[in-house]
Structures are given as structure tokens and as C-alpha cells.
Amino acid sequence: IGSNFELTCPHKSTITLVTWKINPKVGQPCTLAYRMDQKRINTTNCSDSMNWKFRTDWDLALEIQQVGISHEGCYTCEVAAQEGNFHEMYQLTVLVPPRLMLYCDHHGNPMCEAAAGKPAAQISWAPEGNSTCEKEGHDNGTVTVLSRFTEHSTSVINATCFVSHPAGNQSKSIAC
Q1: Beta-bridge mates of residue 133
Q2: Spatial separation of the C-alpha atoms in residues 33 and 19, rounded to whole Å
Q3: CA nearest 143: which of 165, 122, 116?
Q4: pLDDT of res. 72
């Protein structure tokens, strides 16, 4: 999320027409077409964040600037060339790394929160012990996971929270 991303079409030497058909999970479909002989671009229902990327090492690519959750969906590139018609399909899934917060609750138990991640993060503890886990889904497709670590001893708890996520793993330690 937040970075620029590029999708490429099948590369052929004699391309006459390239069309990107985008079907987002949410919102209206969008089409970008480029006719090589007329050097003409036609765009229908596409946001300003999606545009052609012209490069010398590749004829055409689609660039998505500042990728967001709204860009998730199916992207199909269709190429018309002398050699025939070709297509490439991509399923774009956006990962959102969670924000890790670690604190002590009013009972002195460590609380680990992996806020607003996509997909939901997995939380584990060291040392191993009892823990509870709650998940809260948000309207934008992200999920907050809250885990409370409970230990049987009455002494100060030194605990480390480990958050596993496809966008990267994180850990923090606390003494309650």
C-alpha cells in the first residue's frame, strides 16, 4: 500500500493495439486502450492514479501510483499483434502492514494490538502462556487483532509479542 506498482503485457514485436481491462472488487470497471499506429490513448472510468508507463525496454505497461485498497481486483491486458491476440491476467491483492502497539492493561497483563492490517495478523507470545484474541473488522477491509497475555504467576510479567504478517513480521517486549 502507498507505493507505485507496474503490470506488464505480453511483449510482441508488432503490436497494433493494447487494452487494459480492470475490474476492481469495489467500484466500476475501467478500460485503458492504446492504438500504436495512431499513438492514441482512450481511457474509460479510470482514476488518475492509473496510467500508461512507456519504457524503452518494453512497449507498454500499466502503472498504478500510490496503490490503495481500492485498486484490488482483476487486471487483464489484451494485446493485438501480427502474431495474433494475447492476454495476461493479474489478480491484485493489496497488503497493509498492521501498526504494532504493546501496553499493560489495568490488571497488569500485557496487551498486544496489531491495528488495521490486511489480511489479519497472527499474534503469538514468548514465553508461551495463556492468551485471548479478539478481531475487529473495519469498513476499509483491514482488521485489528488484540491479544491479552495472561500468566499464572503473580510476579512481574516480561513478555514479547510476535506479530506475523505477509507484509513483514514485528515484535516488541514489555514488563508489566
Answers
A1: 147
A2: 4
A3: 116
A4: 94
